[in-house]
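Justification of computing resources. Each target in the renewal requires a structure prediction run like the one illustrated here; the chain below, 472 residues long, is used simply to show the kind of job we budget for.
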Amino acid sequence: MFDPVIAPSGTLLGLLQRGRGDGTLHALTAPRAEALAALNHCVLRDPRHDWQVENRSLYYARLYLDLNGELDAVRAHLFDPEDIVDTDESRTGLALAVLGHLASYGRRDALELLRRYAAHGSNWAWALDELALRDDDAGLRALAAPVLARFAPDPEGEAELVAAVRDAFEPRPWRLWAEDPRESIATRVRAAQEAGCFDRWQRQMRPTGPRPGWSVRAVFEWAQQGMERGAALHVPAARCLAAVAGPEDRPEILQAARNGTDGARCTALRYLADGNDPDALDLVEAAVVDGTAPVVEAAVDAFERMRSVAAVDRARRWAQRPDALGAAAGRVLACRGGTRDRDLVLGALREAVRGEGPDAPTLWTLVDGAGRLGIACAAPVLRHIYRETASSHLRGRAARALAATDPSYATGFAVECLWDCEETTREIAARHAETGDARVVERLRRLAADPAEEDEVQTAVRSRFGPDAALG
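Resulting structure tokens:
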């Protein structure tokens, strides 16, 4: 999947792509045709950089409800001829998830569309998972024949069926079909279920990797073999090393950390850092200077895991470095530094935004650190990240940090956060939004009554409706 093109944050499309609460608020006041066009653009061209961790489906489904939006564009997208050619689930996954939420809200057209796609679409397994949570038994039983018809009655087809049953995210349809009164369906599904269980058992009986009795050298060789075939095994290798290495092996491990093969060096650095070895920090610094890219990355990761006082002290020395180790030092101080480190963390935060923009991966930790340390001077940078980042998770972290550093948060961003696509961001807003704004009171009541809302958000809302609350 190509990286999505994100519109400017000041446009309706840009707000909706980011999942910001202001996107919904602007859409509800914009011309309906314009709002629906922007909404369809988002649903049919997934704007998320990481669809596995960022939420949008409930956010878009709620907006369809508020706009009383038709599903013609979604239907055309799902059943476009391209669906036969492009079977990547990222093409249709968001649309199917939105339909699932709409079905939960009682939209019959969404339910029928999911059923039709499960029977005929290429990403049928996703549609079936959505229906498993929302459809009745009769609706699911009607899909047994068209779904099973996808699998040819030959060894290859049966193997594919076994994998589909075994890997199903929601097992309910398959359990229903295993009890289907049509013997041809029930027998086939039960056989696939049994074969899937046997396959799982066989995998457990064929473990790969280190065995008891391995030597330190054998662990290093295993890690290097993984490196040569493109598999980073130094993390599990370091755990193996902890099991097989004794005090007498320390010289060999130190030597590997200095100039071993890439696999051995990464493993040794991780092992020494996890054990807070007195030489670990010097070896990390040396690896960043003369190591290959995988070694530098492993060294930096190992350093960031260290929890010792010595590691924090070294981070204070390294924080001004203009390299990966300097960036890591800023993150270490953000996580484990004290009030004396506020200026260093703020400097790292500003430098990351200047150098890499509002979507830099390093910002996740630095934003959290600004909030944890209560760096009031960071509020302007945090507001910039909140507005501009395309990551709804990073925006949520910025919102949490603003709640701890910015006195204007309760009357500003907290209000729009009540409509945000991320439940954690809505939860923060529910705890902080100033109820003098009539929109806040109305929104809190709506969230409290919405069965699709997450428990944590509703708990936060209920805390505002307590005996001492003044919601009017």
